[in-house]
Write a structure and sequence with these properties.
This protein is of the alpha/beta class and about 250 residues long. About 40% of the residues lie in helices and about 20% in strands. The chain contains eight helices and ten strands. The strands form three sheets. A six-stranded mixed beta sheet has the order 6-5-2-7-8-9, sandwiched between helices. A two-stranded antiparallel ribbon has the order 1-10. It has a two-stranded antiparallel ribbon with strand order 3-4. Helix 2 crosses helix 8 and helix 6 packs parallel to helix 7. The longest helix has 26 residues. The N and C termini lie far apart (about 45 Å).
Length: about 250
């Protein structure tokens, strides 16, 4: 009896180790420059739905070169919007656009600026210039609002492109949320563009958020890299190439 028990125990320990290794392999890589390898980019189909979630937190006022991160993000998105394939429904949500005097205020500072729809290029361009960067970084709350409200009643596969210069700072985990989300539905994909982020834990959380949802994770430290990352995510630039470094 004791021998049988030990055999069963050994089996479960081995099984757990195998699964742990598999999970680790899924996240044990780092994407640099433009992002994932081009062959992993899924081509756009007719009537795609893409919601941009853009960071308007206070740190977006920091400069890279002679412009702020927010200026870089806005100008890059503005230039690429007209190139998005026709038939794509696009929308815009932002977060961190208002300073919170309390934890609750700061961690619920997110707003749908432009609902998903066709021919939204000019609407999104205009909306990008209407708010300052001044608040916190409620990434998880913003994702929840997007999934539960912005996508409500919208069928088919929906993609989020999250552009952020920092990790979650509202005591939530976008990675944990992404994992729980995928247990319930498979119609949402999150691409993440990490702009000028050197914090290892923040990058780990953001990478997990993307990979868990079958999305892509990109790092961008210059405007050219940001352009390449957005272009690949939107399947615009056919010549963009990225590099995957295995640790």
């Amino acid at each position: 009896m004791k021998k049988n028990f030990l055999i069963i125990l050994a089996f479960f320990i081995t099984f757990a180790n195998i699964n742990q290794n598999i999970f680790a392999d899924n996240f044990n890589y780092n994407v640099t420059g433009a992002g994932d390898a081009k062959e992993n980019i899924q081509p756009f189909k007719n009537d795609n739905k893409v919601l941009f979630i853009v960071d308007f937190s206070n740190s977006m006022n920091e400069k890279i070169g002679n412009q702020t991160k927010l200026q870089m993000a806005i100008s890059t998105i503005e230039n690429l919007l007209p190139q998005i394939p026709k038939g794509t429904q696009i929308g815009l949500r932002i977060y961190g656009h208002r300073a919170g005097f309390t934890y609750v205020d700061g961690c619920t500072a997110t707003k749908l600026m432009v609902p998903l729809g066709h021919n939204n290029t000019e609407n999104i361009k205009n909306a990008l210039y209407t708010s300052p960067a001044k608040g916190w970084t409620p990434i998880t709350y913003s994702l929840k609002q997007a999934v539960n409200k912005d996508f409500a009643g919208i069928s088919g596969t929906k993609r989020i492109i999250l552009l952020t210069d920092g990790g979650e700072n509202c005591d939530e985990s976008p990675c944990t949320y992404a994992i729980s989300l995928m247990r319930e539905r498979e119609d949402i994909q999150i691409d993440v563009i990490a702009l000028d982020i050197y914090d290892a834990e923040a990058n780990k959380q953001l990478r997990c958020t993307a990979i868990t949802t079958s999305g892509k994770f990109y790092t961008a430290n210059t405007q050219q890299e940001l352009k390449q990352s957005l272009s690949e995510s939107l399947n615009i630039d056919k010549d963009v190439k990225g590099t995957i470094k295995i640790k």
